[in-house]
Specification:
By secondary structure, the chain is of the alpha/beta class. The protein has 10 helices and 9 strands.
């Protein structure tokens, strides 16, 4: 069966899954590939992993285009995603309006579930915020770090901790059963990331990749993007 292969940040996994049926009806192609920390996905492309389509942060996709690994004219914005807090469904949501609120919430958690703090967008931001709040050392032993946001949120859902909390892209929180979106990070600690899609210069199926970009970014699926956690 013919397949379009993608390398994507975890933030877009729910959207791709939601469009797979429409894409197959339109092109006859299935979608396969990998979702994970954007830095890891970019390095896979650089290492020669076959891919037709990339869905990564705007800045990273621009860098890959400059490296002649992505066709610049193919790049299209998919939407913005907030980095947000998550709790288990059975736990009360937390109210975080200020950085002082956020500091208190993180200090009172006995487990903090986050994606890779070096290769993922949200994980890098969490590390920065903990430093900014002056609590990085204090909470270091409570950080539960996983390769990507989706894995971190699944682990949060099954956590046996008393007061666990998670932090990753809103789309990954919404897509995970057993947890709830508690709200975005407050002013001063917030992060909104634009995700974009582009066709690999060595794509085996560039025409179908372009069709998938049109579905991902088109007006017809604006409501689906909003429901999954994308804005703009």
């Amino acid at each position: 069966m013919t397949t379009v292969n993608i390398l994507s940040g975890g933030a877009a996994q729910g959207l791709v899954r939601g469009l797979a049926e429409a894409f197959k009806a339109q092109t006859g192609f299935d979608i396969d590939g990998e979702f994970g920390a954007v830095g890891v996905m970019a390095d896979k492309l650089r290492a020669g992993t076959p891919a037709d389509l990339l869905i990564l942060t705007q800045a990273l996709l621009a860098k890959l285009a400059a490296e002649t690994l992505v066709t610049p004219s193919s790049i299209a914005d998919v939407g913005r995603v907030e980095t947000a807090l998550a709790v288990r469904n059975r736990d009360p949501k937390v109210t975080v309006r200020t950085e002082a609120d956020l500091r208190e919430v993180l200090r009172s958690a006995d487990a903090i579930y986050v994606p890779d703090t070096k290769a993922s967008t949200a994980g890098q931001h969490v590390a920065k915020v903990l430093d900014q709040l002056g609590i990085a050392y204090e909470v270091a032993s409570r950080l539960k770090i996983f390769p990507n946001g989706a894995t971190a949120m699944r682990e949060l859902a099954s956590s046996t901790a008393t007061r666990p909390i998670g932090c990753t892209q809103a789309t990954e929180i919404i897509a995970t059963d057993g947890i709830a979106l508690s709200g975005p990070l407050p002013p001063g600690s917030e992060l909104t990331t634009m995700y974009t899609a582009g066709i690999a210069t060595k794509a085996a199926h560039p025409k179908e990749a372009a069709a998938l970009i049109a579905l991902l970014s088109g007006a017809d699926h604006r409501e689906l993007r909003r429901r999954i956690g994308f804005a703009g």
